[in-house]
Amino acid sequence: MSTLPAEGGAPPEPVGTHYDTRLPRLPLTRRVQIPFIAAAVYSVIRALGPTLRYEVHGWQHAARVYAARQRCIWAFWHRVIIPIAWWARNRGIVILNTTAFDGQWTRKVIEWLGFGTAQGSSSRGGLRGLAVMAQRLEEGLDVGFTIDGPRGPRYVAKPGPVMLARRTGCPVMVFHIGVDRGITFEKTWDHFLLPKPFARAVILFAPPIHVPRDADRETLEAKHAEMQRALERVRDIAESWFSLTEAEREKYRAEFDR
Fold it and tell me: What share of the chain is helix, strand, coil (3-state, %, to 5)?
């Protein structure tokens, strides 16, 4: 079972689309819009991505998971989907994707960036999506959740990763990205972040969260709360990163790189 390819290395074999639930039938006007929106969003990411400069801390946690011949269940807030989509491109990670209109054009974008997709949502086909993600983990692929998606509420983690961790034995890995220059769309439900060209970005990875295969309801709730706290902490530190003093950043670097 191989680890993720190094940045700039040869991309893995393409990951096929996984249709786990029937897609809702959309009006013709909506269906026509999907390829145009997807192409526009992909073009923005493809133009912006190469200009971003990433500083990464805590990746050794993932490296240890791979060394133990396991895969990762990634969980992150929907807000940072643009900067992480570029950094994690071409790694074959399977993302749980909604079947709604937004999910249908998003699916095209993330597949063009080298991700796989598992169709499902919190209200439609979610359990089928989790079943397919469990299968992909067994096949040696990582999986990922925009944990407060597809429509919020913002910064409230859904239970999918914890349920999947119990089923598969793979750990939940949470992270967040902060940038020194970016635009926050405050009228969107997720406070969507669009980094500005040539922005500096920091990615902070928290230690893995392991869920016992025999976890009862109380344990699952405790692990879900642990995941929520970890997501909030890396968010708060990453979002404030570029306003910290260098001494404060060094303190966090030492903590996250242990």
Answer: 45, 20, 35
Q: In whole angstroms, how far apart are CA 79 and each of 66, 149, 182, 219? A: 27, 9, 12, 28
**What mean pLDDT, rounded, does the chain reach?**
88
Report the length, in residues, of the chain. Answer: 258
- The whole domain housing 66 covers 53-256
Secondary structure class of 250 (helix, strand, coil): helix
Instruction: Note the pLDDT tens digit of each residue in 19-56.
Output: 444 566 777 777 788 889 999 999 999 999 999 999 99
Cα radius of gyration (the chain): 18
In a domain, 42, yes or no: no
Task: Give the contacts of 57 (CB within 8 A, at least 6 positions apart).
Answer: 202, 203, 204, 205, 252, 253, 256, 257
Residue 36 in domain: no
Report the candidate in 99, 179, 191 with the shortest Cα–Cα distance to residue 148.
191
Main-chain dihedrals φ then ψ at residue 240, nearest 5 degrees:
-95, 0
